[in-house]
């Protein structure tokens, strides 16, 4: 099948004769390994944890985090080999890469960051969507006021642009508050549209109020900015409302299961049905609007994965919440022709490394149409590599050595100091070349 890489008009001649059997493309690759963030199954987490298809490293960074080091339980840094392999894959010509994230909790602690705020007798909690220190994000909620939008509609005060569920502020005649003044409960009212007349009504304190003809009414909307990493611009979500009746309700745009942005880092855990009293939406707005950003806490990168973690587990066909993990999750995607475990050569012991390679080769052999790209052990001599290679025998696997030395892409250059070099497993580079050759 042709691959159209630029917009335009193309003419493709299609024969009416029967098609010949085509070879299996090797341009689609799958990696299973540790990343800083991204979809992974955990208790009470989102159900959509299937491996995601990445078509660029920029897309990978938004979904799975960047190249910053992972932090092991003792606090030491660990190079994230799977993200580096993804970067090498795309830099060497790869186009389609599925990532199955592997995360190992610390006992029962899954490292999911959160921050709770008291609202109307309950809590509204910002939660990270996935485990990881990357989820300790900064969150800032900005309130944006319009100009005075009130007008007289046949003796009834109405407001332009406001729809059902919108939040407004009502002020007497005079100067409007400056933008740095946060909304207060006493000025807020929620817009309700009368189904009989189609006209707006203003709800406050559990009853409808009637603004004076001279009142000024401004529309108040929220913008949520999220900084998972201080070195990049924030993710912004605009024109948000606080009522479930609002078209862009904050609890819908930033929800756990299916947010507007698939790569959203945080979601708002808020159930208005559990709140008490009146003006629940207005109270939520006042509670969320802070002058300074707040930071989620409790996220961590878990333990270093073992060979068993990389292998993963099959999904339970009878229990929808039990999803496939690790390599097993890649087995459910027919498009994948090449598989690799970039972390396998870095496991603590040679026995664990060999076990992970056994799982990888068995995965390819069982499916019978995939090739496993196997990395040698880090910093091994040629004698050790020959001995290590002699432990495997499969026509569904290819073994590569040595590791590749590159300049550390996350280190900023310092005048007079030699740049830091790091060693990376060859699987990311090789699979990118495979894909480029096939394309």
- Total domain units: 2
| Shape type | elongated
Percent of residues in beta strands: 15-25%
Which CATH architecture of the largest domain is right? 3-Layer(aba) Sandwich
**How many β-strand stretches?**
23
The CATH class name of the largest domain reads Alpha Beta
What fraction, in percent, of the residue positions are helical? 10-25%
Overall description:
The structure is a single chain. The longest helix has 18 residues, at 350-367. With 439 residues, the chain is of the alpha+beta class. It folds into 2 domains: 28-106 and 303-438, Rossmann fold, CATH 3.40.50; 112-299, no CATH class. It has helices spanning 57-64, 81-91, 250-253, 280-288, 307-311, 326-330, 350-367, 382-389, 427-438; strands spanning 28-33, 52-54, 70-71, 77-78, 96-101, 114-119, 122-128, 138-145, 150-152, 157-159, 167-171, 188-193, 200-204, 207-209, 216-227, 235-240, 266-269, 294-295, 338-340, 371-375, 397-400, 404-407, 421-424. α1 runs antiparallel to α2 and α2 (81-91) packs parallel to α9. It is elongated, with a radius of gyration of 27 Å. The strands form 6 sheets. Strands 8, 11, 12, 13, 14, 15, 16 and 18 form an 8-stranded antiparallel beta sheet that branches.
């Amino acid at each position: 099948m042709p691959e159209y890489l630029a917009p335009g008009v193309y003419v493709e001649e299609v024969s009416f004769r029967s098609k010949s059997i085509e070879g299996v493309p090797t341009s689609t690759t799958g990696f299973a390994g540790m990343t800083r963030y991204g979809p992974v199954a955990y208790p009470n987490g989102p159900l959509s944890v299937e491996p995601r298809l990445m078509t660029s490293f920029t897309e990978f960074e938004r979904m799975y985090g960047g190249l910053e080091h992972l932090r092991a339980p003792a606090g030491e840094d660990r190079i994230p080999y799977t993200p580096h392999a993804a970067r090498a894959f795309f830099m060497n010509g790869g186009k389609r890469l599925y990532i199955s994230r592997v995360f190992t909790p610390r006992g029962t602690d899954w490292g999911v960051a959160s921050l709770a705020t008291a609202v109307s007798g309950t809590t509204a909690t910002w939660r990270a969507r996935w485990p990881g220190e990357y989820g300790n994000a900064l969150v800032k909620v900005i309130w944006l006021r319009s100009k005075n939008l009130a007008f007289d509609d046949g003796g009834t005060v109405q407001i332009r642009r406001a729809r059902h569920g919108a939040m407004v502020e009502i002020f007497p005649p005079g100067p409007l508050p400056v933008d740095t003044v946060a909304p207060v409960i006493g000025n807020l009212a929620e817009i309700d549209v009368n189904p009989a007349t189609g006209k707006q009504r203003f709800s406050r304190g559990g009853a409808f109020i009637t603004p004076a003809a001279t009142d000024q009414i401004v529309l108040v909307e929220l913008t949520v900015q999220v900084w998972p990493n201080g070195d990049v611009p924030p993710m912004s979500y605009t024109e948000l409302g606080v009522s479930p009746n609002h078209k862009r309700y904050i609890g819908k745009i930033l929800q756990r299961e299916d947010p507007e942005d698939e790569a959203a880092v945080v979601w708002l855990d808020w159930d208005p049905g559990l709140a008490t009293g009146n003006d629940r939406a207005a109270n939520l707005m006042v509670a969320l609007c802070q002058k300074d950003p707040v930071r989620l806490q409790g996220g961590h990168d878990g333990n270093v994965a073992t060979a068993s973690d990389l292998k993963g587990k099959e999904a339970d066909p009878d229990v929808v919440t039990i999803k496939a993990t690790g390599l097993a999750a890649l087995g459910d995607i027919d498009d994948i022709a090449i598989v690799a475990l970039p972390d396998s050569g870095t496991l603590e012991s040679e026995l664990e490394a060999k076990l992970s390679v056994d799982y990888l080769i068995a995965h390819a052999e069982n499916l019978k149409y995939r090739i496993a790209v196997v990395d040698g052990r880090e910093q091994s001599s040629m004698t050790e590599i020959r001995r290590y290679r002699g432990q495997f025998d499969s026509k569904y696997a290819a073994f590569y050595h040595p590791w590749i030395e590159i300049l550390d892409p996350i280190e900023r250059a310092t005048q007079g100091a030699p740049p830091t070099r790091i060693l990376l497993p060859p699987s990311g580079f090789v699979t990118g070349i495979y894909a480029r050759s096939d394309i």
